[in-house]
Fold these 2 entries.
Entry 1:
Amino acid sequence: MNFIAISVASIVPLAMGFVWYNPKVLGTAWLKSAGVTEESMKGANMGLIFGLSFLFSIMLAFTLQPMVIHQFGLFSMLENQPGMHDNPITNTDFLTMMAKYGTNFRTVKHGILHGVLLGVFFVLPVLGTNALFERKGFKYIFINVGYWTLSFAIMGAILSAWI
């Protein structure tokens, strides 16, 4: 786990939210499509909201890192090999595989690809289903899915390329 990359990637959803949901970008359209007013948004505990949002972003970055970095699969493939639980760095099978394949698919483009795939094939079905049952329109779905897809693409780029 690269905790620095995870920390940097965790900031992305918050920073993206400040831009994406700004009234000059898509904030006004989101308010209208969500059926809320600026007045109803006031009075919330913003410290709690942003604190939990950042915690959730950290959780997402932890989950996203093994998705965009295929080398994490080596640990599970070699899990039952002698020495893997004690110190994987001394396991010769692990070292050989990492020397040969350790940097494959570790690019910005690859991270973006996985982030977009996650947005389209995971976020869209989940948020879309919720929105349909909440009787929200397609504009609401696309604003939120677009935000998460772009956030995951940037997070994936950071996590994949940060070696």
Entry 2:
Amino acid sequence: MQVFQSVAIVPEPTLRPVSAKTLRQWCAPEVILVVTNLTDELVILPHVIMQAKPSRGRIILTHMVTPIARSGNAICRTRRPASGVEEARTVLERMARHLRWLGFVCEPLVLTGLPEIEIPSIARSCGVDRVIVGFEHDPNRAGAGNPTALAQLLPELDPPACVIGSHVSLASGNSFLTKRITLAASLASDCDVPLSFACRLAQEQRAKLTVVHVFGRGSGDENSWARTPLEIASRLPVPAWREAELLCPTEITIREGDAADEILKHSLSTNPDLIILCSPGNLGVGQCWRESVSYRVIAGAQCPVFVLKKQPEAARLRDDMFSEKVPAYGESPTLATRKEDFM
């Protein structure tokens, strides 16, 4: 006769990599880090104003001055570093004056070094709740928004990164409320945090949340019942999906084909105000970010795209952690931990 311990039949509670407080700060950011290339003022600033206005968040306006490239003993440079820093300071101060005139607290900051190192570092030290960065198609242009730098930067950012692609239209000065949010979710990856963030953001903005799942052609699952919204809902993280159903209007849409193409087609037909993706994490050997779903959606989207960092695996719970749980209003009774515990 086999004897089972009683703890084996008790389901272990879900451990969230981010707390309810962190989710609220992501949705109503108190500190926003804006990375500009100094030429995208007319495109990126309207979106910064739109996202910072509801919470009157503090804005840190930054520009990256990349280090001098060396080739053997020769130094390749297009301008002197000192002149580049001074030029950046002049433009940033002008942009900051414009934001201050609108009533925002804004600090211009010039960073020197590699974007994937300096930007996450300043984001952590300043307690940034959101990063806004423009996307550039030119891989040879220096800056945090070019494809190479962005591929290295996004997996290193702890807060959500809002990427303003080249096809994104100017934000309307009167449209400060988001009405439609699309979350591109995959059952093959952990979508707990993106789903929790999406439903909290939809609640803050009083928006409708649409979860899009794309089945690849020839995926091997021939059961028609496995391709229904109800089945997709049953496979989503239960606490996060229950929150979404309670806090905001929700729907699940199923498409079939190439993931990036179908997400963009759905975006064109529904015209969402935001798209939320889960970061694929660091690329492995032989992987090209230009072929990834994240890159192709960012490059083709006509609205801002939020990319969330891939969360680390949750550690096993300790008995003394249960007493620290304080549920927020509307929060399902699952254990929440501080974000800094998982950094």
